[in-house]
């Protein structure tokens, strides 16, 4: 957030209020509703802690400690949903209209962050023997991902959740440190890509010939794989 500074010796000028642009191309947007909070739609831009709130007639704006907007709770929304929400076109239009009324602008990034990856190399984690460090080829680059799946093996083609991917249960995937080792995403099982509907553990093994880096439709995979 950029704050304009005005000298105390200068006459005050009327500042034109500009719309804050919040793009999920830079910070992932997750949308939730809960049946205990009827007509409230919770929209998160990241996982930072909320330090300040500002309430308007139809929304509650959430800010972090640096006063940057990190989320919005829309009030009195005309839909009744529960859990993580994947917005369709009509819902996107409604959200954009509500944001415009708050003098905010929002973009929706529909690009899938689930791709095919090939485990190029594996080595046991230096301190935890139940974990492996996998070097994964996703076509245009290689990622280092820490994985606990027992069926992981070299040359295996599997589903990679890239940083900023959101699982069906609303879990945000991000770069992290696992027991001192950097992990750049997650290798997925059916349990994860179906939000627990298919409790099948172990990495998904994609058919031979699937191109590394190709974008995957996890909803479709969840229906066709068993």
Summarize the structure.
The protein is mainly β and 226 residues long. The chain has 2 domains: 20-107, no CATH class; 114-224, OB fold (Dihydrolipoamide Acetyltransferase, E2P).
What does this structure look like?
This protein has 226 residues and is mostly beta strands. It folds into 2 domains: 20-107, no CATH class; 114-224, Nucleic acid-binding proteins (OB fold (Dihydrolipoamide Acetyltransferase, E2P)), CATH 2.40.50.140. Helix content is 11%, strand content 33%. The chain has helices at residues 89-101, 190-193, 218-224; strands at residues 20-23, 30-33, 40-44, 52-55, 59-63, 69-75, 83-85, 104-107, 114-124, 132-137, 142-147, 157-161, 175-178, 181-184, 186-187. Strands 4-5-6-3-2-7 form a 6-stranded antiparallel beta sheet, with no helix packed on it. A 5-stranded antiparallel beta sheet has the order 11-10-9-12-15, with no helix packed on it. The longest helix has 13 residues, at 89-101. The N and C termini lie far apart (47 Å). 23% of the residues are buried.
